[in-house]
Sequence to fold (504 residues):
Amino acid sequence: MGKQSVMLVLEGTYPFNGGGVSTWAHLLCSQVSNVNFKLYSINANFETTPKYDLSPNITQVVQVPLWTPDEPYDYISYGDEYYKTVGKKEWTTNEIVEREFVPVFSKLLHLIYDDNLEVEHLDEVFRALWLYFEDYDYKETMRSEPVWKAYREIMSQYIVRDYNPDAALIDITIGLRWIYRFLIPLAITDVPKCDIAHLTLSGFPVIPALIAHYKYGTKIMLTEHGVFIRERLLALNNSEYPFFLKRLLIRFSEAIARLAYYKSEAIVSVNKFNIKWEKMYGADPKKISIIYNGIDSDKFKPKPKPDHLKNVPTVVAAARIFELKDVITMIRSCAVVQKSIPDIQYLIYGDDKAVPEYTDTCLHLIEELGIKENFIFMGPRSDSHNIFPEGDLSILTSISEGFPYTVIESMSCGVPVVSTDVGGVKEALDENSGFLCKPKNAQEIGDRVIELLQNHELRSKMATHARQRVLDHFTISKFIRQYEDVYEQLLNEHQVENQPVEIF
Fold:
């Protein structure tokens, strides 16, 4: 018998995009020895080329684009079974939708707004949705007149209940468009057969895991990096969406998070911070364990600064340029430092094309503060082990994190860190390895950067301690061994449950 299989469910990350979760996934898939992996990659658009060299134990990659004009199953190879996809369109009539789908969809909408949500009922609804889409077409159903009428009438009830008379028809329409995109994985009912479905966030990617569970009895597990619902709330708080849309998205996200925790038989948190959020949304504490991220300390090791930077006070960052990384505060901290250290260099490595409007805001601020020569976007790099040795220290200004690789990678390279105190950062970065600061406090962050740059002895002591802390606690071997143990435990339970019963 060959290796058991794990379907790793990802959203906007591995293998087509970089970042901390992608680093984690690549290490997992490359190093774990007791299973093979199938990747279920949910993205905004269809991606053609992975950013990573995929290991031999990745046997399949399924990609589901949520925001393309095409339908997602156009990208799935059905082979001889494709006629079923064509047939679904013909079989999906308004009469069928009205009779078979609308009652289930209506129940889903009511559950989203239920203040006393019983998550097992939500589970039943998703099972019913899966069974429906086994036979009928997703697009024809969701864009039908019966669905629009039912949705509009139910939303109107909650608009009145919530005393929200300003909700406009366009807001209600956009809300249905969101739901359409969130539920697209229901269109791919032929998910890969697997023994374990491993989620990388407690959000809408739970849907393919649910389908695998309903269809094959697949075990579901979850690794929580940054807490999905917390980051969704932070993003919505800073958005300009009208109240109706904010409320819909919050309600739906909360319901889905509860369902993900309810269905997961093992919940792995990358830090202690996440656990209080997981418990808040119904996760069983008995299911939760902590596995800290680990790195290759032989790859991430101290190196001399490059010659062109040896006499230049340098701060490095590896960060995707978007709101949660709060690059705005990083820029403002550079302006604080520049007043005391005029030749300071902030070198920022990361994707500056992902959120163009945010990058534009950053560039305008850099211009306004007069630090164009000090704060430089270097673009993305795949060799992060060579990035951190360029700096005298590294910086992280996020408003939300799980257990960031950038922190332990920097520490492993013997480079102290100045970071915001968010998520599990304090579990990696102790007082002898760097400084923790309040989020959005550019002055405090800048002052700590100045202190480290001007105190060579302190910087050297922190560098030595940081490296040793990684060797003691955050090695890749420990990280991989713990995941292999979780997989083994779930697989053993799966085999016991599926043993044939002898009849005498």
